[in-house]
Amino acid sequence: MFYWGIKMESILANFTMALVSDDVKVIDATGKFVMPGGIDPHTHLAMEFMGTETIDDFFSGQAAALAGGTTMHIDFVIPVNDSLIAGLETYEEKAKKSCMDYGFHMAITKFDDIVSRDMEIIVKEKGINSFKFFLAYKGSLMVNDELLLEGLKRCKSLGALAMVHAENGDAVFEGQKRMIQLGIFGPEGHALSRPPVLEGEATARAIRLAGFVNTPLYVVHVMSIDAMEEIAKARKSGQRVVGEPVVSGLVLDDSGLWDSDFTTASKYVMSPPIRASGHDKALQGALSNGVLQLVGTDHCVFNSTQKAFGIDDFRKIPNGVNGIEERMHLVWDTMVESGQISITDYVRVTSTECARIFNIYPRKGAIIAGSDADIIILNPNSSFEINARSHHSRTDTNVYEGRRGKGKVEVTIARGRVVWENNELKVVPGSGKYIEMPPFNYLFSGIDKADASYLSSLNAPVKRSKSTT
Ligand code: DUC
Ligand code: ZN
Ligand code: ZN
Ligand code: ZN
Fold first, then answer.
1. Protein residue with its CA nearest to atom 8 in ligand 1
2. ipTM over cut 0.85
3. Ligand 1: residues within 6 Å at CB?
4. Subunit comment for this entry (predicted)?
5. pTM score, two decimals?
């Protein structure tokens, strides 16, 4: 899947090692790793959220991604007035300026006959194979258990993957009230109001309901030991649950939230919150032992002016942190350089597993004949340094400010075009392509058999009780 020290003879859209003429570009990758481009399963570009809009759009966010070795991302479509189709049309418009390949997940904020019909259209005609349910954000995006159950059943019938933002939104609301009563208005109140136990509860509930419906479940941004342990338990019992940590949860702890400078502290506000020291290491361990399967970012950025909407009240700080540009570097440095995962596992957690789960493997997530030529060259001996001055995102802060590490993406090739080389971006708005993702990924294989055995296990005692009365 990757080659140590090969000299690539050609860069062709349809990656081949064929004999080529003298005028092709030659890139010397001696001593470096040639790997599939990264795929970020979790981003929010140009999203209207908490009274404002994320400052990275489909051009700036993707340019940043390419500079960091990510060649595809999957963004969340938010319905407009609960309409999936209206939401999708809005995002199709926003994505016209794309300079990188992308796909969509669809959020579900209501359930009725229209939503049910539109879910089918979205899967069968629009190339989306995943639906996300927010168990938090009471009063806006949050869904209750009844809606979640309806949604899970519909996902199952369509072969679509159900995803959850797992925090108990009612309890978060209560936690926020408590903070205000205590006179805690600063960014630290954000973390204190929504502790790990609320993430653990919602994760456990979603897992159990998905098990009850017998459909696969994908838990986004696993930020705590509490949530991770629920996923571990379910997977051990054979349930089809996928856990996605995000870079901020893997490498940061909550100390920044207590910084006395509001601009510094507020940049760390995201949901679920960045946890106390210890959760980060535990999540790294879970990524290395297979309890968690792929790394996203939840890239959702606001500049310091937008973050300052919450200067008097943490509840008004727009939630979100950066990561789309930093993910490949930080995962390499934290997980590979430190010896926690192998290079093969690095390719899996940053690219291949995402392609498999969203059913676009081996077109994406691989370097083989017929795959799109999304390729990076990473130099394990070169260093990176992260700061807001030099990053490519439009935001004026960076939660990884000042971090240095080993392993730098020196070249990014997207669909056969060199878009990042010598620390220079060559990106063209409109060149990114929408990637359709078909339903019924590998997690659905044999699901019907499991249904049959579940039903027969119910049938036996039912019949017996009838015959005895
Ligand atoms: N969490 C964030 O921090 N931002 C976007 C949405 C979310 O769930
Ligand atoms: Zn979320
Ligand atoms: Zn952490
Ligand atoms: Zn998100």
1. 271
2. yes
3. 44, 165, 270-271, 298, 300, 319-320
4. Homotetramer.
5. 0.94
